[in-house]
Amino acid sequence: MKTVSVNLLPSEIILQRKQGIKLILFNRLSIVLLVVMLFFTSALFSLRISQKMELKKVGDNLAYAENQVSSVEGKEKQLIILKLRLNSIKSTLGSDLKRKSIFNTVIALTPENMKISEVSVDKNGNMLLVVSTSSLVALEELVSNLSNKEKNSDLISKLTLNGLSRGKDNIYRLNLKVVPK
Amino acid sequence: MTESLNIKDIYKKYKFIIWPIVSAFASIIILFLVVIPQILTYFQDQNKISKLNKESKFLEVKADKLNNLNGEEIKRYIETAFTILPADKNIPDSVNILTEVVRKSSLELKNVSFVNNSKGAAKGSYGLQLTLQGSLQNVRTFLTQLQKTPRIFKVESIGAQFLEGSSTVEVEIPISVFYEEGTNALVSKETIPELSDSEKQFLSELTSLLPKSVTAISAPSSPSGTVVFGKENPFE
Lengths: 181, 236
Known about the structure:
The complex is a heterodimer. By secondary structure, chain A is an alpha+beta fold.
């Protein structure tokens, strides 16, 4: 014989019970959420603690490295002083090269049969040369030598004839201004 | 009694709502007061760790490089540099060197006079006015030899005049002699001082200028690495 179940409870009570089940589920979910949040927070705290330990370790390493550098600070200072000194030497050395070069070059290019009466070189390397000779060829040779880039080692930028005269003794006197590059 | 019954009734009635509210409230508080600040601080500290690591590695490399330097070699280089450009005027030394060059150039030293013309606070110079006599070729030799001396001499100008009826020339050469007073070495944490190849080459060229018989003028040393001032001008 088939059995038939009949719920004799009123429908309001059935609805109430269904709602109650939903509330219980919601209640349990909220507790789970709180537990998860607490778990996440404790994991975060553990991470922070290990990070703090690493920070301390790195700080100790840095202090050790700084100590190592301090122990050789004397050498470092010596090296810095040396480099500064070398820079000063470099900047000063050779600053008069132009003057010496122009003097030496012009004297070397002066023909032998020419007499130099006066020669001066100023701070800028400008040279004043007073020469005398009885030979026009020697004069020409001097001017040609001083004008030749290869012979004058490309040191001279300008050659000015300030004066040329011939005396009663047939001696040519030449007054030259040499301007370096 | 009736009050407690009321509370119990209220709890029974609302127990399924109280827990979710408390749980949500607690979660929000934990999130905003603990989790978010800790996450932000975590990233800040990670940056700090990375920065400190980088600095520590740089300093280790620096310490290693400085430790590998030959202290004796540096000392020799400093002695060379301070011989070429001394900390004090040391006029007798410069006059000696010049007279030696004059002698080697077969010139005659007629006169030498001192001119005090220091320039600036740190780097200084003084002048020596030389009057030489000899041939023009020997004057050329003198000027060339001047470049090979263990001091910095700068020829300011040259004035040569031939003596009447003679091939001998009288030359006036004002020379500046350089020196540089004590310098303080400023150590920087961010740089590693090193001698470059060109600097080493330059140093070996300077070392070749020093005569073996001349004792190098040592740089006065101090624990702080600074160079002290030298003696005053003995002519004054």
